[in-house]
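Task 17 of the worksheet. Students: predict the tertiary structure of the chain below and write it out as structure tokens. Keep your answer in the requested format; marks are given for formatting as well as content.
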Amino acid sequence: MRIPSIVFIQLIMPVVLLNGQSLTNSNLPIVIITTDGGVSITDEPKVPASMKIIYRGPGQRNYVSDKNNPSYLNYNGRIAIELRGSTSQTRPKKCYGFTTRQENNLTNNNVSLLGMPEENDWVLGGMVFDPALIRDYLCHNLSRRIGEYSSRTAYCEVIINNDYKGLYILQEKIKADDNRVDVIKIQPTDNSLPALSGGFITKADKTTGGDPVAWTMYSWIGYTISYIHHMPEPEDVTAQQNSYIKGEFLKLETAAKNYNSSKVNGYPSIIDIPSFIDFMIMNELASNADAYTYSTFFHKDRNGKLRAGPLWDLDLTYGNDLFMSGFDRSKTNVWQFQDGGNDGSKFWRDLFKNSDYRCYFSKRWNELTATGQPLHRDSIHAFVDQTAALIGEAVSRDYQRWSITGSFSERITALKSFISDRITWMTANIGSYAACNSISLPQLVITRIMYHPPAIPLLPDDEFEFLEITNNGSNTVDMTGVYFLGTGFVYQFPPGFRLGPGSPVVLASNANAFLVAYGFQPFGQFTQHLSNSSEHLVLADAFGNVIDNVHYSDSAPWPDTDGNGYYLKLIDTDLDNSLASSWLASDETITSVSELAAENSMIIYPNPASDVVTVYTRSPVMNIRIYDLQGRQRMAADNVPGKHAMDICRLAEGIYIVEVITPSGSCFNKMVKN
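Model answer:
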């Protein structure tokens, strides 16, 4: 009878020891979750709970005893929480996804957690396959450092229903949002172009939670890659939307297979090359064993190109793999897209084999790994050391909680050694970038930016945004494939458009609104809107070579053009337009021919006006037309002198467009009637 007793004690003792791990204070934020009624958290449906985040601020210690002290609570409210992951759910330590909710437990609550932008969908990543507890955090941070969006991250220690769960990463869930994947959210009614063109978020992945496979593609070694809709939800995708987004991938497959580098119909016309290169660089640097086949996201904005990313699920990297299952694929001397074990869809290998693509891949790699750059060995090592120092205390508790053996410091040393060897191997095997190192770029300059038009009654002010680009060179420029990099502001010039020397071209947010306001059609209409606060506009050629870039702001030292009727105007096209001092605030009339405004020197005064307005131009004779914002003519005066007073008492209060017609042409300006 004693033997069963001993067996019983041996079975329960580890549980007692594990659950006995306590947490009283930490140098990291402390997350305390209490489910309603103490119910267990399941993989759907989400269960209601309360959550508190104790955080005193950078460099401060946090105490569980402060859980009822509002001064130290970063969050104190309702959530709905569930288990996350597929294979990770088989591990003792779990990963969680949660939604911040309002007190009614139904309405989502957009909040900022630990300094991240406001949202309602969040993830607590347990790093369950990474004994160093650093790889996910490292990859996301490096990705952001090279300029790509990647989930923001914050280490924390977690207690659920009074049970210490260990060290976690609080991070943003991948979704469409201005501060996450900045694409338009496509609606079920968007089934014809241009609305059909986006935005989408799609992933190559294993199926979890019953998500249906939208389509499959083949790898070079013959197995199928499953593609799943992420946004919109699979159950909301229409047949037209599924066909369109699948078609974009098939076009990419064909273009890559044929090594088609044409700006008109090759892969440069389909994909945002810099995003694909950065995605591959980050996965290859990490030697990600799951890359290209699982947790591989893509996104596409309306009227935009297909983009790779963001990164996700990065535990099996930097020499780590599912060793308990016999896998050992994350090596320093392999390309994961062709011989790492999960090589993904054929287009990844075909892109790399294309001489143009590979040249730009090599160029970007050598830029990022140069001394002082984010992917230089010393830069990464310093970040790893800094992170290890930050989490070392919590790692000890996590190891004890989950019975993880081995040395944390030795794992960090091995990680750094892997990084050094990996950088050396990739640099030696990536090839030359001489052919694309000195590309001749057109002298295109962003010369005007109306990012925050004044408020107009009954009309959205952002409909009147515009942007002007000028050819500052002496040769005509073929604008085929020229586009704006990134997300949040989308435009790509159509094939065949040529811009003469010294000539401007105007793009507008709404072509019809622009016509009403300025009297001529803009060349094109961009998608999404310019930010009213700050935006980085990067004009590039079809391969992503940067032609011009401006990062404007609504605060000093930038001129004040924030909703006051003025726009940013470059003082001289030969100035550096990346500097605020090169710009001024202007309300100069925009015309279809730049010289026209200067020749006519149209002046309206007073403006605003109540009874009488005087219109002046250098021309001795002119005709005057006054239109409302719907384009209807309200007043006219023919064959009047170059200075003419008009009685506007009968006009209703509002904004009008004044057209002056002279022998040399027409010009337009706004007039406000009080």
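Marker's comment: The chain has a mean pLDDT of 91. DSSP finds eleven helices and 30 strands in the chain.
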